[in-house]
Amino acid sequence: MWAAGAVVANKLSECKSVRVLLLEAGGAQNATYNDIPGMMKYIYKDNVNIWKYWNEPHDNYGQGYAGGRVPDHKGKTLGGSTAHNGMYFNRGNARGYDEWVNTYGAVGWSYKDLLPVFKEWENNTDRSVVESNPGYHGTTGPIQVSAPKNPDKIIDVFHNVVNQLGYRDTDVNGPIQTGYQLLQLYINGQGFRSGTGNAFVDPNPHEDNLHIVCKALVSRILFNVSWPNVVLFHSGYNGTVKTSLNLVKIKSRGTIRLQSTNPLVPPLLDPNWLSTPDDNQNIMDATRFSCPVCRYRYLYECTEGLMCYIRYNTLSSYHPVGSCRMDSIDRPDVVVDPQLRVKYAKNLRVCDASIFPVLPNANTGAAAITVGHKCAQFIKDYYDLH
């Protein structure tokens, strides 16, 4: 199960006329590693509730890693990667979602269509943010978001520098996103992580008709007309300050391939980053922009040296999408239609970030939660569930 799976299970089990089986390959969330925000980096170190995936080596990136293999680990627990991600609450730019519709034919997935869904699951506890853009935020949903409390003093220094460069304070989830904001995080009122696992299925809100089975690895899907109509398988450190650059509007396209029919053998992941001139130029420009006072130092003037640095240090931000692209069903390069139904298959839908036609200019958590809401509603409408 990924982030969206918990949402689908919760929303469908609201209908007392159905029974829902939620399968999770991993276990329940770990109270120390998954609930406490500051423990995120130890999850990878101690292999707690994660799928350990490594990208295939490539000359364009990851040269600083052993064998050139960049990690791309994923959550293996209730709530998927929302149980161990960076917790940043950013939906992405409206035009990114509109591109899903206008370029890829994903009718019903424009930002105007999705904004009510975003607001439905959001519980924003920062009054100043909500009051500044009341039409863009929800305050009653199960996922709580709030600004970090007592941030380090260096944040104020950085804030002043950004303002002096001409960038005003803003709300990155509001109508004007260019500017500065200390990003809100998925953290509840008790200071614990707020993910889809503990917000939607743990504890189980509908024990009579929602059955949760952990440590259950799905090896294959059996298609049989005698089965139920709906079967869902969701299968700055060390005292330093650093600036991380995240290239989210990319043109490079990668692949994910099976290397075995054994579900225990990880797939071959080749993101193929920095394989287009535009991506290389954009990451170069972003690197130079990140340090205005460095602009006239030798490294920043030397294009070859800076590109060497980029290829040595570039790594995953853990937000791959698009391997089961959603699109107009008549396109030959799609897997699911705008209702998330798998092409040429009956009674099977895909519900996670793999259906994104393109990355929505942001971390994928918010969009994945919204996909879960949409998928549940599609199923309810199709089977007239109440």
From TrEMBL:
Q: Which family does it belong to?
A: Belongs to the GMC oxidoreductase family.
Q: Which InterPro entries match?
A: FAD/NAD-bd_sf, GMC_OxRdtase, GMC_OxRdtase_N, GMC_OxRtase_C
**Organism for this UniProt entry:** Oppiella nova
Q: What is this protein called?
A: Uncharacterized protein
Q: Which domain of life is it from?
A: Eukaryota
Q: What molecular functions are annotated in GO for this chain? A: flavin adenine dinucleotide binding; oxidoreductase activity, acting on CH-OH group of donors
Keywords from the named record: FAD, Flavoprotein
The family database entries (Pfam families) matched by this protein are listed as: GMC_oxred_C, GMC_oxred_N
Identify which cofactors the protein needs according to its UniProt entry: FAD
Q: Show where the Glucose-methanol-choline oxidoreductase N-terminal domain sits.
A: 74-224
Q: Where would I find the Glucose-methanol-choline oxidoreductase C-terminal domain in this sequence?
A: 251-372
Taxonomy, top ranks, is: Eukaryota, Metazoa, Ecdysozoa, Arthropoda, Chelicerata
